[in-house]
Specification:
- The protein is of the alpha+beta class.
- It has nine helices and 14 strands.
- The chain has a domain at 6-137.
- The strands form three sheets. Strands 1, 2, 3, 4, 5 and 6 form a six-stranded mixed beta sheet that branches. A six-stranded mixed beta sheet has the order 10-12-9-7-8-11, with helices on one face.
- The longest helix is centred in the last third of the chain and has 18 residues, at 282-299.
- Bound molecules: adenosine-5'-diphosphate (ADP) and magnesium ion.
- Magnesium ion is lined by residues 151, 307-308.
């Protein structure tokens, strides 16, 4: 008789709605299933834009090995932050279920992941093809201790309080992204601040940005820093001032590509068509897209891959990519 597989299960919630379950089997098999309530709700929050174009996307379980489905995989960091988390958890950086558990309380956008006790898991959330033996459900370990931010540069999530910036510790949400200077390239914060300011002046709607003295940063872990004085900060468009979460999605998620496929099989026309079809203000979004493309050419930005284009869901259901205009003070 074959031995029963071990599995841990997470619940997926979006704006208080229970979307479904993510089951992580010990052998690396992962399954996402959506709840009947979510599937049949007329007023459900939108989880991924892909579900609008593919009505049966959520009907069948999403089954993957090691990596999670791209809609979830893209919520995890790619570079140094992933390596660091994998090292802390003593898992392979491609083994995404434990990483997702570790980052689950503070993911980009509004998805929240919570661990479930064995008795809370319905049997249908564990359905696998050809499984003869019912799996043994074991509690989730290492839940929700860190923030996850996508991308490759070293960055932190934090808050600005009483004139200082506080890097979020376990369980605290931040509403600023703070990028520390790079040991590889000089003056990256000043460069990003300058490029974003120029983009703003050219009519790209950008979030509030700041250059902040490193001396005003609290809670920075012990990382190697060059002899520079400033970090770059940008206000998060997926968080508000009261720890509210706004759902977002990057175009790798929308097109169901993994982070390593972010430069492949897509073009800006595809992005434009998706915005035109689904955005609640398609014309404004297309104008912003065109403006951003022009600014990328003028600034020599050759890195506008799928993960550097994000949409958000301000009313929880419909999508938009253009940000509200930020007024410089
Ligand atoms: N202001 C912001 N608010 C919320 N999310 C953001 C913001 N800026 C960037 N992001 C998200 O963080 C990811 C990484 O940011 P990015 O500036 O592209 O970093 P990197 O230079 O490391 O690629 C982006 O892909 C996007 O999903
Ligand atoms: Mg990026």
């Amino acid at each position: 008789m074959s031995q029963a597989a071990q599995v841990s299960v997470l619940a997926l919630h979006l704006h208080g709605t229970h979307l479904g379950y993510l089951a992580g089997f010990a052998g690396g098999h992962n399954i996402v299933t959506f709840t009947p309530d979510y599937l049949h709700s007329q007023t459900r929050p939108t989880f991924t834009l892909t579900q609008l174009g593919k009505p049966d996307l959520l009907e069948k379980p999403w089954q993957t090995r090691q990596r999670l489905h791209p809609v979830l995989s893209n919520l995890l960091p790619e570079g140094a932050l992933r390596e660091w988390a994998a090292h802390q958890l003593k898992v392979h950086p491609d083994n995404e279920f434990p990483l997702f558990t570790w980052f689950g309380n503070d993911l980009p956008g509004a998805l929240i992941v919570t661990p479930l006790e064995p008795e809370q898991v319905p049997a249908w959330a564990l359905m696998r093809n050809k499984t003869q033996t019912a799996p043994v459900i074991v509690p989730v370990s290492h839940y929700g201790q860190r923030f996850s931010l996508a991308g490759v540069q070293m960055k932190f999530s934090g808050k600005h309080q009483d004139g200082r910036y506080h890097i979020s510790q376990a369980g605290e949400l931040g509403n600023w992204i703070i990028k520390t200077p790079s040991t590889l390239y000089p003056h990256v914060p000043a460069n990003e601040y300058t490029c974003m300011t120029l983009a703003g002046l050219a009519g790209v709607n950008i979030p509030e940005i700041r250059l902040i003295p490193l001396a005003e940063l609290d809670g920075l872990p012990n990382i190697q820093l060059p002899a520079e004085t400033h970090a770059y900060a940008i206000r998060r468009f997926d968080r508000d001032d009261t720890d509210g979460r706004i759902h977002t999605e990057d175009f790798a998620q929308i097109l169901q590509k993994y982070p390593h496929e972010k430069y492949r099989d897509s073009n800006y026309e595809m992005l434009g068509r998706i915005l035109q079809q689904y955005s609640r203000d398609g014309i404004a979004d297309l104008q912003q897209l065109a403006r951003r493309l022009l600014v990328n050419i003028l600034l020599g930005n050759g890195d506008a891959h799928l993960k550097n284009w994000t949409v958000f869901y301000p009313d929880q259901i419909t999508v938009i990519s253009n940000l509200p205009k930020y007024t410089y003070s």
